[in-house]
Amino acid sequence: MSVLLPAVTWLWSFQTLLVSVVVIITAVLWRRSSTAGLPPGPRGLPLVGNLFSLSKDMPLVYQEWSKKYGGVFTVYSFSQPRIVLNGFSAIQEALVTNADVFSSRHGEQTPYLSDQSAKGLILEPYTPRFKEHKKFTMSALRDFGVGKKSMEGKILQEAQALSDVISKKENQPFCISRLLKNATCNVICSIVFGSRYEYDDVKASRIIPSLKKGSERFLNNTHKLREHIREEIAKHKDTFDPNDIRDFMDAYLLEAKKREGDENSTFTEEQHVELVHQLFLAGTDTTANTLHWAVLFMILHPDIQQKVQREIDSVLGPNQVPSMEHRSQMPYTQATLGEITRMAATAPMTALHFTSSDVFFRGYHIPKATRVAVNIWSVLYDPELWPEPYKFDPTRFLDDSGKFTRREEIIMFSMGRRLCPGEGLAKAELFLIFTSLLQRFTFKPPEGGPMPSAEGVFGLVHSPAPFQLVAEPRK
Asked: pLDDT of 120-158, one tens digit each?
């Protein structure tokens, strides 16, 4: 046995190695045959593909690869291909010109959903359910003030509350990130729940979502928020009056009541929970992060902050509250917000799209149900569109006469049929809160402290690295 054992062990190891080689070769050949016709892309490793090259800074990695492979290329996560779209032209051609094919989502299971059929809007494939619920959501948001004067009042109320809290800092250094999340979360609360929370209310910590946390903390935060939404649904059911629709929650309950007895109704309680949950995710963290970037850029560019303040003073004076009607009188402020939005790139990648059918796109054959990654960063930081893209320059958005010029390449809210339904609300918040803050404060780094960094942190959102500031009240 002592003589035979080494030989048997060697033979077993050799067979294992041989089987492994055969499996790898088979997998490679199968992948090549099954993905023939896809756009070329960076070479990956057997079995795992490009997995080890896909870091948390994926938007930057994708943009760098596009220099070699163009606006459309393929990467692999294990054997699963993913088409990557870079640049305004490729993204517009896919999401707008070929919207029928590139507008869907995957139908795979989502860990935190107890009812996998209730996917809200963000996770729902492009189905009649999606169209029905998007139409309802857009209508309900309009009914409760989005795009109307009444919504401005809610945002300005929150801007005033935020300014009052900042005033209490009395020139002491602090981090503004949490306060901005409180403010934007309260705007959503006013639409969805018909109420808001004071900044020191412990309940507020349960409902402020975050897209920056690690997966375990994110899931814990998601669980708390969803439980709070369920509690609010129960309260709204107890006090529901079909003749007095108070907020988005009531609007959904009314729509569900109209469909009672219809076994095909998609207005279920789980769909209600997920839809409201996504309104919080989309309407709180991204807008708060963009405002966080806005304050950071004003600290880093005090000359631009002064120009914005001079324009605010000339139009509003020290006491008049801003209105969306003032935008046309404040071109430099609009231009500054345009540049903030571009450089913040708060949502650098969209949620994954899926093709709903086979398609020939730019000379390549892309099969049905292929994942498609849309790199928004590649547009907002394209040097051909924005010379010296890492330079903060509001004049990119001004014409020769000093008037504000809209740029179609600012696609922070995506394009086509998956355009964010909260775009109008987010733009109103950015303008009204930003002008309100700069009307009352000048933002500076703490005396003797380091200047904050303009280099952001990538995750589900692109956010500033934590920093301290001083808010000096303006005379």
From this structure: 899 999 999 999 999 999 998 888 777 666 789 899 999
Domain residue ranges of the chain, discontinuous segments joined by +: 87-473
3-state secondary structure of 197: coil
- pTM value? 0.89
Helix (H, G, I), strand (E, B) or coil at 464: strand
Quote the strand ranges of 22-68, DSSP E.
none
Q: Which two tokens stand for residue 339?
A: 């540049």
420 annotated as ligand-binding? yes
The whole-angstrom separation of Cα 78 and Cα 46 is: 8
- As a whole number of angstroms, the distance between CA 212 and CA 432 comes to 25
DSSP type of residue 397: G
Q: Which amino acid is at 24?
A: I
359: closest CA among 346, 350, 368?
A: 368
Quote the tokens at residue 97: 């010109």
Distance in angstroms (rounded) separating the CA atoms of residues 468 and 452: 8
CA gap 253, 330 in Å, rounded? 41
Tokens of 41: 């892309």
Q: What is the pLDDT of residues 49-100, one digit of tens each?
A: 998 888 779 999 999 999 999 999 999 988 899 999 999 999 999 999 999 9
What is the DSSP code (8-state) at residue 394?
Answer: G
Long-range contact pairs involving 21-29 (C-beta distance under 8 Å, separation at least 24): 27/79
Distance from C-alpha of 132 to C-alpha of 270, rounded to nearest angstrom? 16
Per-residue pLDDT band at 310 (split at 50, 70, 90): very high
Amino acid at 400: D
CA distance 296 to 290: 10
Q: What is d(CA 177, CA 179) in angstroms, rounded to the nearest whole number?
A: 6
CA distance linking residue 433 with residue 291, whole number of Å: 8
Neighbour count for residue 372 (Cβ, 10 Å): 22
Residues 87-473: name the CATH superfamily: Cytochrome P450 (1.10.630.10)
Compute and round to an integer the Cα radius of gyration of the chain.
25
By three-state DSSP, how is residue 3 classified? coil
Contact status, residue 342 vs residue 356, Cβ threshold 8 Å: no
Given the structure tokens 């009204």, which residue do they identify? Answer: 432
Residue type, 117: S
Q: Which helix (H) or strand (E) holds 473?
A: strand 470-473
Distance CA 165, CA 303 (A): 26
